[in-house]
Amino acid sequence: MTTRSPAVDIREVSYHEFATTGRAIADYAFAPSPLERNVDELLKDEQYYTHARPLVAFVDGEPQATVSTYDMTQNIRGKVARMGGVAAVASMPPARRRGIVRQLMEKAFQMQREMRMPVSALYPFRDSFYERLGYATLPQQRYLTIKPETLAPLVRLDKPGSCEQTPMKNGFDEWQAFLERYQQTTHGFSLKHVSNSVRHRDLNQWWLAFARHEGEVAGAMSFQITGHTEQMIVGTFYTTSSIGRYQLLDWIGRHADQITDAQVELRPDEYPETWFRDLKPVVSNQTKTDPWPAPMGRVVDVALLDGIGAGHGEIVLEITDALCPWNNGTFTFSGSSGALTVVEGGTPAATITIQALSALVFCGHDPANFMFRGWGEPDARAQETLRSIFPPIVPDLHETF
Q1: How far is residue 274's CA from residue 279's CA, in Å, rounded to a whole number?
Q2: Domain co-membership, 279 together with 314
Q3: Can you give the C-alpha Rg of the chain in angstroms?
Q4: Its pTM surpasses 0.85
Q5: pLDDT band for position 5 (50/70/90)?
Q6: Which of 162, 183, 194, 305 has its CB surrounded by the most CB atoms within 10 Å?
């Protein structure tokens, strides 16, 4: 007796169809269950997902797995380009361990290439699973916990500039404009399409604080207060100058009689112990209430890396990519005048995987480590050139999705 192979149909669906198919799969994977959502309530959110592209895998006609791509932007070593934010990757138990999610991801990468997205990013349930799909792990976000009373000397200090607080619904446009300016100078910084971001404005669940100096916004933070003598949750803390930083810290310090401590999400390369004396900061890569794993990034289309920032040097690499066949081949990477040029062809000096290239682009990962990751074995000369073209850099992803 032969066993019939199930018929797998992968297709892009509208938000309306996703609400009645893929959403239940994602809820089963990531939410308490059993859970039955009101479809009419879900459809009220359709306006926020006009630039999301969900895929659903139907097995013998039944929805069994899903993945969504968000149309986002990201700073890639100084160049702001489109980025595929991958979310809601989930499958029902009958579809697991059968390669169906892998097929969905292949389809998602094809879609992202058609949208001319050079890179993709996601937050993994397990990084080893997504590494097999071409992703490399990025630095994990860090969180500062600080007692506001330790900032009392700073509050008493005369400082240039000022700080202003406003509800999200009133300050959203200025906050969004600040984030877009900040993205221009911050590697890895991603932003969702504004059609999705306006949900923050409509929900109005955050305060905004703007640090101002000489008519310009020098810093912005979003925050919530959980209750009297409880905690201030600072969701974003971005500054463009020292004045911006210390004005925002001053604002936190002014809550000393209202909150017990403040939790501030940090950029991965910030060290708050150097900010001011006697702060006694506690830094962790997790929060107690809403932990997120370290994000991961992937090069979707090698050719589209042309024009990102780079150091000096030239090397020819053979790239191997199991899921994106258009990346399989030989490419010449040249760095001069601060920009990368990518052209096909040449005699390769080394063979590396797409995971290795992703790690170089996003982080400047040391190529000496590749052999231990199964990503290739460039010789000492190739390693030196790669370090020069892709110097170390710390990405700050910003968005969660």
Answers
A1: 9
A2: no
A3: 23
A4: yes
A5: confident
A6: 305
